[in-house]
Amino acid sequence: MEPCPFCNIVAGEVPARIVHRDEQCTAFWDIHPQAPVHLLIVPNRHLADLNEAAAEPALLGHMLGVAAQLARRMIGGGYRLVINTGREAGQSVFHLHLHLLGGRRMGWPPG
């Protein structure tokens, strides 16, 4: 199995600009930002995607709560949350991650 970059960040083996860490999840700046604020929120244990995490509603709820707290603190206004699941949807790192995007007006449709 290929090393997971997000597991390496959570373990402290790879540097990242971490803005939040608790017992369940870690949030850090995306290295290829698509908005002035572009954070990734990942579970601390490896779950490949939303399909695998569907049996973990408490974890998913916690991640959404962390996203809302970070958005209030770092954006203040509107923001977007995105979870890509599967290669066809644009998932490139197969460790569940929630994109928090804000700081500019977002267009619709997004994809």
Task: Explain briefly what this protein structure is.
By secondary structure, this protein is an alpha+beta fold.
Q: How would you characterize this protein structure?
A:
By secondary structure, the protein is α+β, with helices and mostly antiparallel strands. The protein has three helices and five strands; from the N terminus they run αβββααββ. The protein has a five-stranded antiparallel beta sheet with strand order 1-2-3-5-4, with helices on one face. A hairpin with a 3-residue loop joins strand 1 and strand 2. The longest helix is centred in the middle third of the chain and has 18 residues, at 57-74. The protein is globular and about 35 Å long. The model has no long low-confidence stretch (mean pLDDT 95).
Number of helices: 3
Regions with little confidence, pLDDT below 50 for 5+ residues = none
Strand order of the largest sheet: 1-2-3-5-4
The CATH topology name reads: HIT family, subunit A
What's the number of extended β-strand segments? Answer: 5
Mean pLDDT: 95
Corresponding CATH architecture: 2-Layer Sandwich
CATH superfamily: HIT-like
Radius of gyration, rounded?
13 Å
Shape annotation: globular
The helicity comes to 25-40%
Which CATH top level class fits? Alpha Beta
Number of domains: 1
The largest β sheet comes out as:
5 strands, antiparallel
Strand content: 15-25%
H-E string = HEEEHHEE
Assign the structural class, choosing from mainly alpha, mainly beta, alpha/beta, alpha+beta, or little secondary structure.
Answer: alpha+beta
From the N-terminal CA to the C-terminal CA, the straight-line distance is 30 Å
